[in-house]
Amino acid sequence: MSLTEIFAEPLKTCNFDSKQQKILAMPAMSWWSTLARAAGRGVEGVASRTIGHGTAATPSARTAWPTTQGPTVLLPLRSHLVTRSASSRSPSVTVPKIVFLGPPGVGKGTYAKRIAKWLGVPHVAVGDLIRNEVKAGTPLGKEVENTVSSGGLVSDDVVLGLLKGFLEESGEASGSASATQVLHGKTIDASGGYILDGFPRTAKQAEMLSEFQNVNLVLNLYLREDVLIEKCLGRRICPECNGNYNVADIYRPAENGKPEIVMPPLSVPEGCEGKVVTRKDDTEEVVLNRLEIYRRESEPLEAYYRERGLLVDFEITGGIDHTLPVLSPTVIRELRQ
Predict the structure, then answer these.
(1) Which of 132, 144, 264, 277 is the 20 to 30 Å CA partner of 26?
(2) Distances in whole angstroms, Cα of residue 102 to Cα of each of 71, 123, 188, 314
(3) Any coiled-coil ranges, and where (predicted)?
């Protein structure tokens, strides 16, 4: 892990219109079950094809994702297409142990935090764990600080050891307290659960993680590259309140098998106007280089989890209010026991 890597709301109520393939506003309490029923229905005449690191819906015969793990389930939700290897389900309690993957700027941190809060499990960013150790001045923190200061990289053993300790403490802290809830017909137990945000980063780290944790879902968020670049270039931060905003107003019409993309700006509040600045590393050259590095490093990692039937590709095509009502039931549906 490099120095850059280390130091670098309630959901909107809605309904899913299966005829028009879009989200409509409706009263609270009924939208979750309606969405779940809509998500459970297959849509004929949809094929999956690879576009970069994602998939898009095209009007042709149903085809299967290239995998040896069994038949593929295709679940188009408006302009979202979710693909994963089908697996058996049982009515037992499920503890969510989830990994969120995705390129820089896709929003995985935002969605990981909100889903973690909804499930009642810790949101774990390894970089935060390391920073906390350094700030606390622990022996490990001092070792990490010395390593980074000298231009070195924090070893996988140190990172995984720190993560293992945190997860063990977190599991012990949850104890035997009741933390179960029924979400979309599945009983979820938050005790011992977690969401790992952007970690592991390599197939080697994934193998090391599997020695002490059994991940039961890997959610791979993706976004069209041209949109991702525009989104990254629109990021703004307020140096006074540390608020993060995005001034990009993005729209792409549905064409050539690609879904419509609507991403309104995250407006800067009145108190921060005139104060926000662009991050120094949010230039097109830097963003393109960052995406190329991510692509090169993520392919073996995605293959590792795809071969084990754990990877779910989820395309982002809208803002938070549009994405969360679709992403949330997808997470519950795809969790393994």
Answers:
(1) 264
(2) 24, 16, 25, 10
(3) none
Is-contact 83 72, C-beta < 8 A?
A: yes
Q: CA dist 39 to 16, 17, 91, Å?
A: 9, 11, 19
Burial of 78: CB neighbours in 10 Å, binned 0-12, 13-18, 19+ = buried
Name the stretches of the chain with pLDDT < 70: 1-91, 173-178
pLDDT at 5: 47
Question: What are the structural domains of the chain?
Answer: 3-334 (3.40.50.300)
For residue 178, the model assigns a pLDDT of 56
47 — phi, psi (to 5°)? -115, 155
Q: What is the pLDDT of residue 14?
A: 38
Which residues, in sequence order, are CB contacts of 301 under 8 Å at separation 6+? 101, 200, 201, 202, 203, 206
Q: What is the DSSP letter of 206?
A: H
Q: How many CB atoms lie within 10 A of CB 12?
A: 15
Residue type, 117: K
- Supply the DSSP symbol for 274: T
Instruction: Look at the block and give the residue holding tokens 């104060």.
Output: 275
pLDDT for res 91? 53
The pLDDT score that the predictor gives to residue 176 is 52
Token representation of residue 235:
């990021």
Say what the pLDDT of residue 153 is: 80
Helices and strands (H, E) in the chain, number of each type:
10, 17
Residue with tokens 């729209």: 251
State residue 318 phi and psi, 5-degree precision: -155, -175
Please state the separation of Cα 3 from the chain's center in Å. Answer: 23
Q: Please check whether residue 312 is in contact with residue 217, taking contact to mean a CB–CB distance below 8 angstroms.
A: yes
- Give burial (CB, 10 Å; 0-12/13-18/19+) of 271: exposed
DSSP-assigned beta bridge partners for residue 255: 258
Those residues whose C-beta lies under 8 Å from the C-beta of residue 211, and which sit 6 or more positions away, are none
